[in-house]
Amino acid sequence: MNLPRAFLPVLLVVLWAGNWPASQLALTEIPPITFRLVTLWGGTIVMIVFCLMDKENLFAPMKEWPLLLLLAFLNVGLFNILSAFSIAVLEGGRAALIAFTMPVWVVFIQLLLGERYQLHQLIALTSGIFGITLIIYSIIIDPGFSAVASGLMAVAALSWATGSVMLARSHLSVNGKALTMWMLLISGLLTIFFLPIQSQPLFSFPVSLRGWLGLAYSTLIGMAVCQGLWFYLLTQIETSRAAIILLAIPPVGTLLSWCVLGAALNTLDALALLLLLISALLSARFGKQVKNHTSTLKPKKIQ
């Protein structure tokens, strides 16, 4: 079944926002690197099944492998490793707030590369920057503030932003579900090298039903489906516009964390989230539907 283009960002925002409380449920009982290994390898298996069902070409030319490795490391590997440690310390909603500073990094990187923005994009960006500034202030004054966890998530956001810009400007022949599969597989292999920094055992049992449900959601939805939808969205609209739309995820993610986990939400947070939501709505309402001309990624239909 094909998804209407206008529905795609909404679906991505809701599903990815749900991944943050789900991740925290799992990470309260499962060590961070173990969690990422399971979600990355599980997501890889899911995408392989999808590719085989659609008879999609899985092979990338050897000359593209250096770029593919770098893109996988930035877009998926480094982001997921750093964010797992951060989510384990921070509340799911607050972790989402820091992670989705990513759109602002995208815009700054694009500006350095000579990108020009229209008035509505600048208004959306300004609203987003004000919202993020309030978030940073709220997090810093919080009694449970962790500079290390917050810093890890900020670096994760920068890594994701850099990888997204590079992916949008890349010249890869592999695309669609096959691209997602390779990103997850490569990142799963890279994550193995981070096992020595995990102090807990690789597997820690028993895990409660809530923990298993969080792990299942993060693997099937957060990793496989959402990563695939994100890479597909980058083939449909401008990179900066796609990134700013993601600013709707922190409000939804925080709301879900509040409902599921009872995460705290103060007035300052609410105002910041409102500004982020305005920014995302402006970006979703206006802008070109055509992908940046520098990319050769081919759009594919979502089955």
From TrEMBL:
Keywords: Cell membrane, Membrane, Transmembrane, Transmembrane helix. It comes from the Bacteria. Its main location: membrane. Residues 8-136, 152-283 form the EamA domain. It is a multi-pass membrane protein. SUPFAM superfamilies: Multidrug resistance efflux transporter EmrE (SSF103481). It is found in: Cell membrane. The chain crosses the membrane at residues 35-53, 65-89, 95-113, 122-141, 147-167, 179-197, 209-232, 244-264, 270-287. InterPro entries: AA-Vitamin_Transporters (IPR050638), EamA_dom (IPR000620), EmrE-like (IPR037185). GO terms for cellular component: plasma membrane. This is DMT family transporter. It comes from Billgrantia kenyensis.
